[in-house]
Each structure stands twice: as structure tokens, then as C-alpha cells.
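#lab-general

N.A. 3:47 PM
ok so I finally got the sequence cleaned up, no stray characters, all 77 residues accounted for. can someone with queue access submit it? mine expired

B.Y. 3:52 PM
send it over

N.A. 3:53 PM
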Amino acid sequence: MFSSSAFFLPNYKHPPGRKGPQHRSLNFLEMDASRMIASLKEDIEIIETGLSRLNAQREEQELAPTPLRQPNPQSRQ
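B.Y. 4:20 PM
back already:
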């Protein structure tokens, strides 16, 4: 686990006396973070599409005429 989110900031300057990650490590972390962000954006699009479809189905059901309820012959007895 990282002690600071500064490792993910490309222009972050570490305070004097504190060593940051090696340049190669930072590039790897940035690349890994950008892949994760791209994947999350794709997931968000999929979720939004699904929610839109569900909302459209719900609206269709709300607007659809409800069938008349047939009386149950056993309930009259």
C-alpha cells in the first residue's frame, strides 16, 4: 500500500529528504492507473446503458393499460 496518493500525480515533487519511487516505477503506476480508469469508464457506460433500458421498460409498463381483473368465482361463495 502506498503512503501517499502523490505517487499517482505525474507532476508531483517529493519534499526534500524524501525519496519518491524510481522513474520506471512511476511510469508503470501511471500506465496501470490509466488502464484502470479506462476500464472503469467502460464499466460506467455499460451500467448507464443497462439503467436506461430498465427505466425505459418501467416507463412502458407504467404507461401500458392494465388488464381488467377477472373476479375469482370461488371468492363469491
